[in-house]
Amino acid sequence: MIDAETMTLHHQEHHQSYVDALNAALADYPELQGRTLGELLTTLPELPEEVRQDVQNQGGGHLNHALWWRWVAPGGSREPVGRSAERIAETFGDLEGLKEPFNAAADARFGSGWAWLVVDESGRLSVLSTPNQDHPISQGLVPLLGLDVWEHAYYLSYRNRRPEYINAFWEVVNWDAVEEQHGVAAALFGF
Ligand code: MN
After folding, report:
1. Rounded to 5 degrees, what angle do the CA atoms 190, 64, 167 make?
2. Cα(11) to centroid of ligand 1, in Å?
3. How far is the CA of 4 from the centre of ligand 1 (A)?
4. Per the CB 3.0–4.6 Å rule, which of 94, 148, 154, 168 could disulfide with 158?
5. How many angstroms separate the CA atoms of 20 and 58, rounded?
6. For 15-46, how does the pLDDT look when each residue is reduced to its tens digit (9 = 90+)?
7. Cα(105)–Cα(116) distance, rounded to whole angstroms?
8. d(CA 191, ligand 1 centre) in Å
9. d(CA 87, CA 63)
10. Residues 104, 109, 115, 121: what is their CA dihedral angle, to the nearest 10 degrees?
11. Neighbours of ion ligand 1 (CB under 5 A)
């Protein structure tokens, strides 16, 4: 389980701070305010230098957490479903075969960051980790599932025991949200 106090702080303090900081960074750039986070994060090198790092950090933090709440939302499927389930089985054999590299990526991330199950433009699945709040779309990859391994995501319950938190995460994954992300990627990439 992930305790209620952690979830409340995570949502109301940490996530909100990314939203507020992104809005502050873009305050003087009305032409950027109308763009989606996906558009901003896929065009980082083209953004004005003064806002590029804030978009990467705060915009990434906003998008990562918007997805996070759906991935750990109560209810929904307790096991992989639909096309994403088929692709996981084809790529990793079974769920245990996915957990092995995913958990290793989450555990090996030094400091703060995320572990991801991603899909590329050809529909190929892979596992990776990014530092800080970097979002996979900046590498042309759509995340099907992500795990926040910043200490703020687990320290109240698990202290420094990140592997216990990683194991607990799998108990609360909402696999409908994974399937929804696969649909987002299929529409974006046209596979
Ligand atoms: Mn977080």
Report:
1. 105
2. 8
3. 14
4. 154
5. 8
6. 999 999 999 999 999 999 999 999 999 999 99
7. 8
8. 31
9. 24
10. -100
11. 148, 150, 153
